[in-house]
Amino acid sequence: MKEPILKVEGLTKIYDSTIAVNSISFALYQGEILGIVGESGSGKSTLLGCLYFDITPTSGKAYLNKENRSIFELNSQEKRKLRNFNMGMVYQTPHLGLNFDITSGGNVAEKLLMANWRNYSDIRKRLTTLFERMELSLDRMDVPLSTLSGGMQQRIQIAKALANNPEVLFLDEPTSGLDLSVQARLLDLIKKIQQELKISTILVSHDLKVVRLLAERVLVMKEGRIVEAGLTDQILEDPQHPYTQLLVNSIL
Amino acid sequence: MGYVAVRGGLEAIENAERLVKYFRVKGDSRPIEVKQICEQFRLAVDQVMAEGSLYAPLYAATALKQAEGDTIEASFILRALGASLPRNHYAVVADTREMEIIRRISAAFKDIPGGQILGPTRDYTQRLLDFSLMDEEASEIQKFKDEFLTGLSDDDPPDFPKIVEILRQEGLLEEPPPKPVEPPVDITREALKFPAPRSARLQVLARGERGGMLAIAYSSMRGYGNIHPALGELRVGYLPLRIRHPWGEGTVYVGRVQVTEAEVISVHFTGEKEQAPKFTLGYGLCFGHNEIKAISMAVLDRTLRSVQPQAPAEDEEFVLYHIDGIESSGFASHWKLPHYVTFQSDLDRIREARKRKAGKDD
Amino acid sequence: MAIEKLLSKARRGYNFAFLDEKTKREIRRKTLKAVAIPGYQVPFASRELPIARGWGTGGLQLTMSLIGPQDTLKVIDQGEDDVVNAVNLRTLIVKTTGVKTTADTARATIVQTRHRIPEEGMREDQILVFQVPYPEPLRIVEPKERETRRMHAEIDYAKMWVFLYENIVKWEEITIGSRYPVMVEGRYIMDPSPIPRYDVPKLNNARTLYLFGAGREKRIYAIPPFTEVKPLEFEDHKFRVEDFKGKSCQLCKSTDTFLNELITGDGRIFRCSDTSFCEKRRNNPDTPKHLR
Predict the structure, then answer these.
(1) How far apart are CA B333 and CA C53, in angstroms?
(2) Count of domains in chain B?
(3) Nearest Cα residue in chain B from C16
(4) Residues of B in Cβ contact (< 8 Å) with C88
(5) How far is B233 from chain C (nearest CA, A)?
(6) Contacts of B161 by beta carbon, 8 Å cutoff, 6+ apart
(7) How much is the pLDDT for C7?
(8) Which of A71, A138, B324, C169 counts the most CB atoms within 10 A of its CB?
(9) CB within 8 Å of B78: residues ≥ 6 apart
(10) Closest CA to C213 of C118, C110, C80, C105
(11) How do residues C146-182 score in pLDDT, each as one tens digit?
């Protein structure tokens, strides 16, 4: 039996009078891709934002790697350390996750430097490996990020997220801002890399097709709650909740 | 005598000091009296007191004399003087409704209770150079005074209700901020921290440099921002100040200061969903008669409360860190100091980088 | 009150060391906090002095708050005692305190400096006060104070390191001339004030209390004696000091001091930046730099 690497219990986020995330509990297992699907406003990105410390949850707990202290109880210095050493995040658009004032290589190097890499040639070697893995041409490494296409910028984000071999990887609609053809190639690449590296991953998407392609298990979210959970194939074959049925029907 | 004489710096400074004095007095006119500056350069004195953040008209006039009329230099001298004095008391929160008004206008309403009091203003005069001032006669001045002062009434001035209160009673204006805590945050005793409490923010604005504040406030009025001000009320007058009784009960009157107060209504209204929208208010108050400064301050007070700051005038750090005349002028002039050690370090770096590039191109 | 009476009051003397006693005590309290947290920038209110902002008011306030009648003072700018700015600051301190002054580093109890650390090693019983224009080392990568304070609190220094990384990508080495950022006790990145890189190693494990004052920016920070101070560097791109190989001081012939380049009619000559040490060497060429 696989061990859970991340356990979330009763996670809740309330904005003024809106409950964005309503007492969510689930586990992420070693090496799997867990899909979270739902329409915009269902709370799925807020959930991810809480886990990556971008958003402070109202209540709830989350345990990483069998630690007995919830990650939300850590102080800001400890949170940053966890984020830098143990987590990777790919945001919906490059503008959210990258610095456009520096080179594309500098953006990836940032994550290594955050994790105390202090040898320049080691950093350059690691960048080369990551660029190759992301099928990015090496002559793009030292040019300003802004000169890269949207698809390439998104690959830079993924390279940055993977830079430290994180224990958990968060993907927040990683392809939804891209053209269909670019999207397909990037999804293939993500799948290939995940299979190679076996990084435990949470993938958030409004698009069941994307989730079907990548995730073995899926949570369906609506109005801040999980309305259905199970193996992706099972849910696609035999959706129980009316909302899931609606989602499934819309892609068939 | 070189810029960085290897020896003899003291002599150089002494000579420079003597030269400054010489340039100040080299003409053959009589030395200007501090009393004359105080009385006849009233607005310059007011500006220096506000930016020097010390209400001391005679000292401000002396500083202006010493600085040959340079207001930044004069307010700097006044600030330094203030820094050498212990702070013994804080005034209790003053109520500007108690002001003895010499001027009071509203641009928002034509007729206001108490009336529009134009007071001493150049607003509606033509700015034609008055050549007659080139040789003004004392006898002519005396004649004018005699005429002007006869027939002035001794009646108590009428009550002037606050215009913004009227709007507030109608529910059109946001509620006033809570009464400040006493003693207030004192920015001369505690460094600014962000977000800055409103009392700290108003203090920085009250002693800011007029030109700098005007430029930033103007950028907001002109288009880099979303405030759209209307001048609710502008008052000039004398404000009584009190302190807590040092050992007994109650408060003690310690004197009055002349101030200019501006209340600017932002017609860009705000309101939560399902609530009726309201106008918001920006507040300006400074020493002396200085309308441009009070209005700029009120505009900036309002811009700094923007919920989602976008324009420079709405950025708290940008505004509060850059409007102090003593700080900005001091730093701008420090570039005149020698920097040759740091420059030597930079020379070393550029030569090294050039060497490396050259080596590579071969 | 008659004008004459007011004016004569204005001419009366100032307090010892200009600032009032409460102010001096406040500055000393902030200084103690700075000493307790090496490299951390302690906010302080910062008074206006009769010296312009940016001309050393931070250092002056530290000196004024520490100095007593028994102290012996040395003030230098660019390493020199007799340049106009140093003379001006020294004159103000002497005018308001009456303390003894010296150009001899070894004899001073308080040394106030702009842009240099004296060549001669300093002792435990001395204090070196630095004038600081930019206390925030992260300002080059982040303009916002709120953000830089957060970065310090969380040891979130990646932006600074990316800046150094990109320097090497572009120029094959770090291009910071002076004000080279240092890491204090493995905790805070600190701006050492605009001293040359040549002086940076003297910050590490020093015997003397180093105090840094930024008047305009209203910050005090400190390096207490025997504190670990390391320049930011990569393992394979080491921090390097200015290169004076093959050059010597035209006056004292030293080859182991920081030299200023002087342009003369017939080319360049070099002279010690620390003029009082240069004079010592001229009198005794074997004067050592270090105490140990």
Answers:
(1) 9
(2) 3
(3) B84
(4) 9, 13
(5) 34
(6) B97, B113, B114
(7) 45
(8) B324
(9) B48, B49, B52, B53, B54, B56, B59, B60, B63
(10) C110
(11) 999 999 999 999 999 999 999 999 988 899 999 999 9
Residue with tokens 């987590």: A87
Phi, psi of B239 (to 5 degrees): -110, 120
Which amino acid, one-letter code, is at B80? A
Residue pLDDT, tens place only, C72-125: 999 999 999 998 889 999 999 998 999 999 999 999 999 999 999 999 999 999
C123: which 2 tokens? Answer: 């002792």
| Chain C residue with the nearest C-alpha to that of A99 | C159
C-beta separation of C43 from C101 below 8 A: no
Establish whether C249 is a catalytic residue: yes
Q: Which helix (H) or strand (E) holds A228?
A: strand A225-231
The ipTM assigned to this model is: 0.90
Banded model confidence at residue B281, pLDDT cuts 50, 70, 90:
very high
CB B318 within 8 A of CB C143: no
- What the block records as the tokens of A239 is 């959706």
Helix (H, G, I), strand (E, B) or coil at A31: coil
Closest CA to B162 of B104, B121, B123: B104
- pLDDT by residue (tens digit) across B107-137? 888 888 888 899 999 888 888 888 999 999 9
Could you please state the CATH topology (level 3) that the domain comprising A4-251 is classified under. Rossmann fold (3.40.50)
CB C94 within 8 A of CB C112: no
- The reported pLDDT for the residue numbered C1 is 45
Residue B361 vs residue A222, higher pLDDT: A222
Same domain as B271, residue B249: yes
In whole angstroms, what is the distance from residue C206 CA to residue C227 CA? Answer: 7
Site of tokens 């302190």? B243
Q: How far apart are the first and last CA of chain A?
A: 33
Give, in order, the Cα–Cα distances in Å from C86 to each of B6, B9, C193. Answer: 12, 8, 17
Is residue C39 annotated as part of the catalytic site, yes or no?
A: yes
Would B310 be classed as within a structural domain? yes
CB contact under 8 A, C52 and B348: no
Domain, as residue range, for B48? 9-83
- Rounded Cα distance, B332 and B212, in Å: 14
B161 and B40 in a single domain? The answer is no
Closest Cα in chain B, distance from residue C241 (Å):
9
The C-alpha atoms of residue B332 and residue C53 are separated, in whole angstroms, by 9
